[in-house]
Amino acid sequence: MRPETIALRAGYKPQNGEPHTMPIYQSTTFEYTSSQHIGQLFDDPTMGYIYSRFANPTASYVEEKIAALEGGAGAMLTSSGQAATMVAVTNICSAGDHFVSAASIYGGTVNLFAVTLKRFGIDCTFVDQDASEEEIQRAIKPNTKLIFGETIANPAISVLDIEKFARIAHQNNLPLFVDNTFAPTLCRPFEWGADIIIHSTTKYMDGHAVLVGGVIVDGGTFDWSNGMFPCFTEPDESYHGIIYHQQYGKLAFLIKARMQMMRDLGAFQSAQNAFLLDLGLQTLPLRMERHCKNAAQVAELLDVHDKVESVRYPTLKGSPYRDLAQKYLPSGCSGVISFTLKGGRDAAVRFIDSLKLASNVVHVADIRTLVLHPASSTHRQLTDEQLEAAGITPGLIRLSVGCEHIDDIIEDVTQALGAV
Questions:
Q1: Are the C-beta atoms of residues 178 and 192 closer than 8 Å to each other?
Q2: What are phi and psi of 256, to 5 degrees?
Q3: Strand partners, 338
Q4: Residue 146, SS3?
């Protein structure tokens, strides 16, 4: 099925006489007729539901739909995008381990990798994603466990060369994790060599700013028994000695994340939010098409305006990521544009405060047009060096172009530029 059909038909499939719309299983726990049955579920948790901290039927339907959209073997919802990243990384990294990440990623993820995980004894080396394979290879150490990047970086709007990063990862028997938050339905990283995909479902997948959530999608193709990951090939004494790779094969990563990490961290998605997420997913392909079309036109406007110093959007002729965008994102590059006005921070603030249609909020990828000044909000915790590595200048503006009529969006942007 094509994405438009998957978004509507995958996951919940009502049987004869059942509700046409997916029901909300608003229950913390599930009843069984015998202790033996419950014990069997702990032996093989894929055979049923135990407790909604691990899995819930409503969430399972949505997980199935997202896995189908990405072409993965399975998925697990989480309470936020940050939780998805945290669970995915710590599922294979322990104290003393190391991983490599592109530097041009979301500021909150930079802080998670550089500060919080460091407190747990997990080190991260940040690399320029546009560097040569040889330079990136030099960042890999004997204790490296994974490589991480974003399809379209937030807010640098740079495009990751997924095949290049996958090649480096696999040459070192490592998995490639890709945050695909800005490109759902536009890019399927598994097709280019990614092994694990992460989304903040708070963004385009929801699309309406009504829920916070995340998801981990497992491609089901990485060999966790290659000798680099004993956590999959040795007994887990915290879960009655189960050997994940032996029992679950291609789903070993996801089952371990669910029954070990989610058990202990407890960051699962609620049934209510899973239901709301499904409503967003149903129109995701339609919205993404409109977001991309509108953003491309706004980017063209900004690119030739005399008050604009620079624009970052991969479809522009002068973009250094144009070729990568045509390769990985032929249907469009999302609705997010980053640009810098002449006059720096003061000009950026005047522009933002002069907008009448766009909403000034700490959010992105909503159906409505949003604007933000990253250096003073979402990325203010970063050092000047980290800001520079993430491609953020003091005057940078992030404009998340929505699905309003393009003429109204352009009118608002034009009048705000006139006030600068």
A1: no
A2: -65, -40
A3: 312, 398
A4: strand
**Does the pTM exceed 0.70?**
yes
Task: Dig out the tokens for 176 from the structure.
Answer: 């490639």
Under DSSP, the state recorded for 112 is I
Q: How far apart are CA 226 and CA 259, in angstroms?
A: 22
Q: Which amino acid is at 294?
A: N
The single-letter code of the amino acid at 219 is G
Task: Determine if the peptide bond prior to 57 is cis (ω within 30°).
Answer: no
Other C-beta atoms lying within 10 Å of the C-beta of residue 376: 12
Residues 6+ apart with CB under 8 A from 175: 92, 146, 147, 169, 195, 196, 222
Give the SS3 label for residue 279: helix
Residue 220 burial (CB count, 10 A): 18
Cβ burial, residue 28 (10 Å; 0-12/13-18/19+) = exposed
What is the SS3 assignment for 243?
coil
224, amino acid identity:
W
List the pLDDT tens digit at each of the 420 positions of the chain: 999 999 999 999 999 999 999 999 999 999 999 999 999 998 888 899 999 999 999 999 999 999 999 999 999 999 999 999 999 999 999 999 999 999 999 988 999 999 999 999 999 999 999 999 999 999 999 999 999 999 999 888 999 999 999 999 999 999 999 999 999 999 999 999 999 999 999 999 999 999 999 999 999 999 999 999 999 999 999 998 999 999 999 999 999 999 999 999 999 999 999 999 999 999 999 999 999 999 999 999 999 999 999 999 999 999 999 999 999 999 999 999 999 999 988 899 899 999 999 999 999 999 999 999 887 777 677 777 777 776 678 788 999 999 999 999 999 999 999 999
* 309 φ, ψ (degrees, to nearest 5): -80, -45
Give the separation between CA 322 and CA 334, rounded to whole angstroms.
14
- Measure the CA–CA gap between 164 and 299, rounded to whole angstroms: 27
Reference 389, options 149, 104, 152, 101; nearest CA is 104
Show Cβ contacts of residue 381 under 8 Å, excluding neighbours closer than 6 positions: 107, 111
- Residue showing tokens 């995958």: 10
